Structure to design on (212 residues):
């Protein structure tokens, strides 16, 4: 055995082997995945996200129920014929006669003899619309558009018909809210806004086809 071989005995390689083993161990520790603390933090984050989703879904459900409750549906026999109606009050009261603000009602009616109609009803004052006039209807954030209207020659109810009931229904059925500006005898015009998103079209059989 020469001098070089003696210097490279197995014992001479031990420190190097220990060093390499330590590096391998450290590398293995680094690839071992998230720590317990990291896992707990991720789980908590997922829990908070689920709670936020549940709260948002709860708020949306409550709002949908509120909007649906704004509509009132009736079935009755009126004037010798079957009648169904869908009616909603304005979101805010409107002063139509200078004596204080009151709700304005929007009604869709389907009568066996009289056919389909849509009209506004006031609790005070009167419409300046005899025999006919024009109202302005705005859907959500769109520009308002005129629609023909008429005031029946009767004092039994303070009502004004919007002539194209099916066109108004189509606008209403696809809207979040609509606004109707109408003339009043007290002078000028007033605007009633209706939050219509909760409309249940199935309550007015046959009208859903009009919204297509």
């Amino acid at each position: 055995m020469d001098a070089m071989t003696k210097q490279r005995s197995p014992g001479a390689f031990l420190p190097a082997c220990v060093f390499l083993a330590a590096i391998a161990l450290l590398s293995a520790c680094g690839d071992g995945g998230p720590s317990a603390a990291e896992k707990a933090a991720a789980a908590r984050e997922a829990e908070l996200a689920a709670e936020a989703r549940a709260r948002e879904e709860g708020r949306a459900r409550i709002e949908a129920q509120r909007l649906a409750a704004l509509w009132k549906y009736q079935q009755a026999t009126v004037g010798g014929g079957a009648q169904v109606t869908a009616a909603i009050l304005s979101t805010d009261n409107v002063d139509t006669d200078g004596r204080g603000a009151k709700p304005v009602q929007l009604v869709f009616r389907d009568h066996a003899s009289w056919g389909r109609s849509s009209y506004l009803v006031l609790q005070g004052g009167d419409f300046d619309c005899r025999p006919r006039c024009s109202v302005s209807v705005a859907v959500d954030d769109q520009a308002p558009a005129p629609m023909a209207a008429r005031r029946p020659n009767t004092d039994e109810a303070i009502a004004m018909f919007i002539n194209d009931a099916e066109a108004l229904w189509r606008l209403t059925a696809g809207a979040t809210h609509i606004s109707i500006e109408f003339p009043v005898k007290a002078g000028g015009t007033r605007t009633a806004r209706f939050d219509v998103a909760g409309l249940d079209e199935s309550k007015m059989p046959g009208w859903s086809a009009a919204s297509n």
